Recover the amino acids of this structure.
């Protein structure tokens, strides 16, 4: 209790302090300033409150859950409950004879790259083993020269393998 | 009596129509021979030779030593009926005409007539399944020599029944 001044002294100090505040008090705001403040407050009150950052993840989760729910209902309604696919014709109505298919003789290959030839199978590989005729296996029946240039296809002489070459001489 | 005759006449007509239908359906398939043509190019500069053509290249070089490399270019395959010529495109507007003169005999030999480019015609008989090479006089724009080989099928086990 000895640390505090007596009550009369205390009142004097407070009065001095109040006098200091009164002398140095700021000027009263003008009516225009009050109006600006009032306008700013009104605007702030009219603006919708922005969601707090903590609310946004919750919104995302809710949207995801909603999408999952819609997807699940759709799957349940249209996919799970739909009947299994059926054959266009029941077995007893299918034709009994085999389906018509092209024979090898029906197919014409006008041109195929040699690298792809054996990717085509017409009963057997298109090219297969490249086997050349041997001597004595080819029998030339008749040759006729070209009427314009006179060249005649003939069997190459002195060849172990049969080869047809152009010959300028009459056969 | 007239009704009976009419009935008999209708039955005869119906059986005739049925026989015609059967003939049309069961007509034996036209005999065809499958002709395969491979196009080969021989180079005087490139020495690369397709391994499948080694034997042929060795044989040709005996008489035409200037031909260094041989390569397979393309293939065509057609089924030709008897006595109907067909054209096989080779390269750069060059073509060969082939006609089957007789289908496979008991010895599996087929006779055919071939008209190679810039040459006359040759008729020969060949065993099934083997190629006969023909060396033409034509050179491509790149300077390669044009050769082609002809094979006929079917033979033996894969003849049409």
């Amino acid at each position: 209790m000895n640390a505090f001044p007596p009550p009369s002294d205390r009142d004097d100090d407070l009065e001095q302090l109040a006098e200091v505040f009164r002398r140095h008090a700021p000027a009263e705001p003008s009516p225009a300033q009050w109006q600006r403040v009032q306008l700013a407050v009104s605007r702030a009150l009219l603006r919708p409150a922005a969601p707090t950052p903590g609310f946004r993840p919750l919104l995302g989760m809710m949207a995801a859950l909603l999408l999952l729910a819609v997807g699940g209902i759709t799957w349940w309604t249209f996919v799970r409950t739909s009947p299994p696919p059926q054959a266009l014709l029941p077995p007893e109505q299918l034709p009994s004879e085999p389906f018509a298919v092209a024979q090898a003789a029906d197919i014409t290959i006008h041109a195929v790259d040699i690298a792809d030839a054996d990717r085509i199978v017409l009963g057997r590989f298109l090219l297969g083993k490249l086997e050349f005729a041997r001597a004595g296996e080819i029998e030339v029946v008749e040759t006729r020269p070209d009427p314009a240039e006179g060249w005649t296809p003939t069997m190459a002489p002195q060849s172990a393998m049969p080869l047809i070459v152009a010959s300028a001489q009459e056969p | 009596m007239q009704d009976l005759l009419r009935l008999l006449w209708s039955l005869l007509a119906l059986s005739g129509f049925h026989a015609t239908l059967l003939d049309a359906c069961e007509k034996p398939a036209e005999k065809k021979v499958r002709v395969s043509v491979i196009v080969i190019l021989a180079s005087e500069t490139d020495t690369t030779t397709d391994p499948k053509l080694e034997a042929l290249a060795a044989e040709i070089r005996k008489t035409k030593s200037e031909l260094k490399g041989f390569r397979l270019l393309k293939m065509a395959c057609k089924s030709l009926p008897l006595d109907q010529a067909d054209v096989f495109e080779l390269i750069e507007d060059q073509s060969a005409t082939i006609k089957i003169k007789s289908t496979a005999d008991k010895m599996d030999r087929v006779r055919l007539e071939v008209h190679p480019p810039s040459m006359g015609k040759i008729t020969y008989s060949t065993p099934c399944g083997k190629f006969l090479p023909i060396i033409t006089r034509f050179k491509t724009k790149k300077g390669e020599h044009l050769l082609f080989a002809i094979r006929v099928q079917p033979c033996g086990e894969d003849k049409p029944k």
